[in-house]
């Protein structure tokens, strides 16, 4: 399997260390490089021991929300009857994000081992990997891995002779960003429209098929075996306090070496872009960067000299999100970026709640009008205002995801919007062309 | 409705994946895989799956209309999907799309009269670090330039 | 849930049982939180975001329709942030809305209109183009106007959860999402109209009512549905002496807001062009219109002449009319030859409960009983409201539902036990569920006409052997089927199931088969639809709305008022008495009560004061079980009657009991004259079951 981008010597390869190794996705390769050691180790442990180790690693969810993983696992009720499940979020649809597919392509057993460890920690017996439908090649690839795993006794009954049983299946999505949202994903898994659920109850209590469920991102599960092997503390120390370990960052946009790189949390963002990403494309200057997928507020170039960890990003008013970093050069048209982002969210709004369904539609219409040269000054204010009226009021975070980048782009690049409006001959009049 | 033995086998296997009584979980995979074989989500297909999963056709319809990869009308033999979302847009995705429109003579979600090509401007397909990206049916092409797009299209028979 | 939680809403201390939703707790305290998608009794959606409130310490506004009360919670429902959020939500809603209120059927009753008025969106800042989508007709009674729809999903839930039909769904995604009918472009469903009723805006409108009038131009009259035995309260919208609408939005009756297709739309028989408006008399072999005086004179003469008389009453006339009819027959015509068409063996049930702990069940039990057993009846078709109660019981209380029926029924889907039996072997089916039934803590049994005579006794014995409290409902067909029996329209039993004085009279089939009747008086029934009259020389007097098969054989036909045109009371299937209130005036017809009174006066018979209230007062005094509270009835409530607790000496054969096993779209002769029901039956899916 080919690598999409050459690795950088400046990476810290913890979970991507098998990328590029010949037949890295085969069980034998995995076994020969320490595979399933962690699994065998935890077979001797109590569930609490596993959860404590994961807590000690300060691993936070890599799907976007950054919730502490050990804590999430500890919410699964212990003494309840009935099955418990694991669900892997491989929907990877946040614009800017393309890491989970690499992890599943190059090192699927690492994720499987992580799943088995989680299963042992919470007492789950069955799991699904929900993979976005566009990744059909990946689903086929992963299905062949599952087949091998079953044949070789690494899934199914009495896994690797430990007496532990677990079944794992792939499940295809069918084109819906919202199905990456955990509760919408669970609805989709049940064969329904991907509309989120009312929470509480959270998946840990009532998830897949209404059973207690651990739901994590591909990268999150993939990280678990190394944490067990090296110890939680070792992993945590790779990053900064409370921001343990490494992350896969998907670098895209106007840089010389776009690609997916594994770096320790807390690495300086400009250092990452310049040293690993090879600096700006065509020698241009940077204008802005979206640090963690299109749902994150944008940073101006002068705001980017910060450590890449959850807390520093929060301080800068944005997020590491799903690790989709998109760098934009000085020639980038920020109004068009705002429109393109809003078009995406309007397309992906599930339609369940009013502020998101109507808000994204209205905002897209208004931004289109501005781009088409039919905007008025009051429209610029209204874009920001409407986005703010969606914020925090929608049923699920997709509404916020649409609002946050929009608010930040209007705030930080207002003159560009005004320049568009100035080109409209009717802009000053109240008789605004409607179209 | 009859399906190929391979698809039937896949259906049979799928139905074992879910807890007892929750076989509806198989609906979306069944729709996806059957669409590949049938060419579209036809009324017959919806009725057949409704029957097999013991749900109403309306319940199937609710699902079909929700997901953007499920189509009620057949697409071209080669469905060209061009991503114009932010990462691809920054690297020329929009220009690729415009070029494809001209070259194929069709627009968004349209199919050539011959049925050979259909075109769709799609949202992020998870190839942002190798942008601009396109998909021909399920196959990815990364870092596509206009001339590479021409080559790809010309190479398809 | 005696566990009370203390919280503060808008600086008012509020106490509510743990688990109460904030929106309901506020309501208890008299504080209104606006809502579109929240609907009491149905699943939660949290979709419209109208109910957002501020809760201290919460990072953002919370939906009051899904957050339960918490101890010490401090809630604000009118803070600036909340008010602003509401305003924008309304503004968002209006972006897609056509704002065609002046021509919308819902104008004046629209919740969106009310909210905009109350919480003000002010001037809309939306200047983009709105898309026009033409309205769609989904069935003879249901129309959908997509752009008006605010996607609150009430209709989807009421159809799915309330009706158990599931004929409405949501298709497409995002802003393109809309409501869709079961069969692509049309509905195949119960046509109950609940979805229309529950729609907060004018997105779903009714074929019967559309564009006819506006809510404020109607008079609203609360009465009881005349069709089946369930006794739903309905509010008639009347304009220019025409009924234009039936609904129950005020939820004042035992049926809440439920009405089936018949209750909601099939009032239109009332204005059918074939309604009789003048008496008819057979002159030279042909029925011809005559004056009331002449027709009554002819009847009085024949009645005075005497001879062998038979009297057939109806399951649709009021209690007062039935009571007076049998009184007249027994005192003036001096005969016990009086009967009506019986559809359930209430008599044997009463008798077999004598001395047992088991009792009669009622509408509330359908909703509250921990378990329900249905024997030999397709209740979703034949007893729409009871079926609805039972579904709600399952939904809200997880009641155990058991069915033993000859065909598949809608209840199968929610049943813990479900068996197919035949009409004669239902007992074996019931027996097969014995162990499961024994595990329940109580049971309500509803049975249809296949359980009669000895069968009823066996069923009661079976219930007794379970060792749990059991209640019974004997299902009957029509609006006053139960009242007809209670009032003594029976050859062997008088009012209150007292054995008659003298020998029992002839049953209905006996009257039909007799060859020597001189006089046959048929009030509101159509026996000749099923029987032939053997006495070819009998003088036949018929009181009816239409020229039925029976009326066509009559010598005198007296046009009768419908139940929508009279005052009085009726008793529903579970023995609840409710008041009929006149909604429209008759045109040429008279109420059966008045007709009986006029005949009596002509004959010089004193029946006492002949008006509905006076007769009901007599019923209260003389009919066992009917000593109910008058204020309850007068104010439109339902009063439970308690018939005999003791043996009932009946000689009647169970073979006479036969339900017409109507469907949702029929109730005997009457509904043949309903244009709407006929349209519904002819529409695709009309034979829907
Ligand atoms: C609109 C939306 C889309 C999301 N898409 C994804 C996704 O594609 N992949 C993912 O792992 N998490 C996604 N998430 C986050 C998930 O809801 C969830 O938090 C995550 O999968 C939990 O796993 P983690 O704790 O390992 O991050 C999305 C969330 C939202 C609100
Ligand atoms: S915010 Fe509302 S409409 Fe948007 S995706 Fe979430 S639930 Fe759906
Ligand atoms: S009329 Fe009644 S049964 Fe038909 S769709 Fe509406 S709610 Fe459902
Ligand atoms: S049709 Fe009416 S009830 Fe149904 S979702 Fe739309 S607004 Fe709500
Ligand atoms: S259930 Fe019976 S009483 Fe109620 S509306 Fe329908 S026909 Fe009338
Ligand atoms: S933006 Fe085009 S693949 Fe992600
Ligand atoms: S009423 Fe609470 S969200 Fe609709």
Q: Supply Rg of chain B.
A: 18 Å
Helix-strand topology string of chain A: HHHHEHHEHEHEHHEEEHEEEHEHHHHH
Low-confidence stretches of chain B: none
E-strand count of chain A:
11
Q: From the helix content, strand content and strand pairing of chain B, which structural class follows?
A: alpha+beta
Unreliable residue runs of chain A: 429-435
Which band does the percent of strand residues of chain B land in?
5-15%
CATH topology of the largest domain in chain A: Rossmann fold
| Estimated helix fraction of chain B | 40-55%
Q: What coarse outline of chain A follows from CA principal-axis ratios?
A: globular
Description:
The complex is a heterotrimer of chains A (435), B (157) and C (689). Chain A is built from 17 helices and 11 strands. By secondary structure, chain A is of the alpha/beta class. In chain A, helix 13 (334-348) packs antiparallel against helix 16 (398-412). In chain B, a hairpin with a 2-residue loop joins strand 4 (134-136) and strand 5. The longest helix of chain B has 12 residues, at 27-38. The mean pLDDT of chain B is 97. Chain C has 22 helices and 29 strands. Chain C has 689 residues and is an alpha/beta fold. In chain C, strand 3 (52-55) and strand 4 (62-63) form a beta hairpin. Chain C starts with a strand and ends in a 7-residue tail after the last helix. In chain C, helix 2 crosses helix 3 and helix 9 packs across helix 15 (454-465). The B-C interface holds B 43, 56-59, 61-62, 65-68 and C 166-173, 180-184. The complex binds flavin mononucleotide, iron/sulfur cluster (4 copies) and FE2/S2 (inorganic) cluster (FES) (2 copies). One iron/sulfur cluster (SF4) binds next to helix 4 of chain C. Residues 149-155, 179, 198-201, 203-204 of chain C line the site of one iron/sulfur cluster.
What's the layout of helices and strands?
The complex is a heterotrimer of chains A (435), B (157) and C (689).
Chain A: H1 27-32, H2 37-42, H3 47-56, H4 69-74, E1 85-90, H5 100-106, H6 108-122, E2 126-131, H7 136-151, E3 167-172, H8 182-189, E4 213-217, H9 218-230, H10 232-238, E5 246-253, E6 259-264, E7 267-268, H11 269-276, E8 286-290, E9 299-300, E10 307-308, H12 310-315, E11 324-329, H13 334-348, H14 354-371, H15 377-390, H16 398-412, H17 414-422
Parallel strand pairs in A: 1-2, 1-4, 2-3, 5-11
Antiparallel strand pairs in A: 5-6, 7-10, 8-9, 8-11
Helix pairs in contact in A: 3-6, 5-6, 6-9, 9-10, 13-14, 13-16, 14-15, 14-16, 15-16
Chain B: H1 5-14, H2 27-38, H3 43-53, H4 57-66, E1 78-83, H5 86-90, H6 93-104, E2 110-111, E3 117-122, E4 134-136, E5 139-141, H7 146-154
Parallel strand pairs in B: 1-3
Antiparallel strand pairs in B: 1-4, 2-3, 4-5
Helix pairs in contact in B: 1-2, 2-3, 3-4
Chain C: E1 4-9, E2 12-17, H1 22-28, E3 52-55, E4 62-63, E5 74-76, H2 80-96, H3 111-119, E6 136-137, E7 142-144, H4 154-162, E8 168-171, E9 178-181, H5 194-198, E10 204-206, E11 219-224, E12 233-239, E13 242-247, H6 261-265, E14 280-283, E15 286-289, H7 292-305, E16 309-312, H8 319-331, E17 338-339, H9 346-353, E18 359-360, H10 363-368, E19 371-375, H11 379-382, H12 384-397, E20 400-405, E21 417-420, H13 426-431, H14 434-438, E22 443-447, H15 454-465, E23 470-474, H16 481-486, H17 508-513, E24 519-523, E25 539-544, H18 549-552, E26 556-559, E27 568-571, E28 576-580, H19 592-603, H20 612-622, H21 630-634, E29 639-640, H22 675-682
Parallel strand pairs in C: 1-5, 16-17, 16-24, 18-23, 19-20, 19-22, 20-21, 22-23, 24-25, 25-26
Antiparallel strand pairs in C: 1-2, 3-4, 3-5, 6-7, 7-10, 8-9, 11-12, 12-13, 14-15, 14-26, 27-28, 28-29
Helix pairs in contact in C: 2-3, 7-19, 8-19, 8-20, 9-15
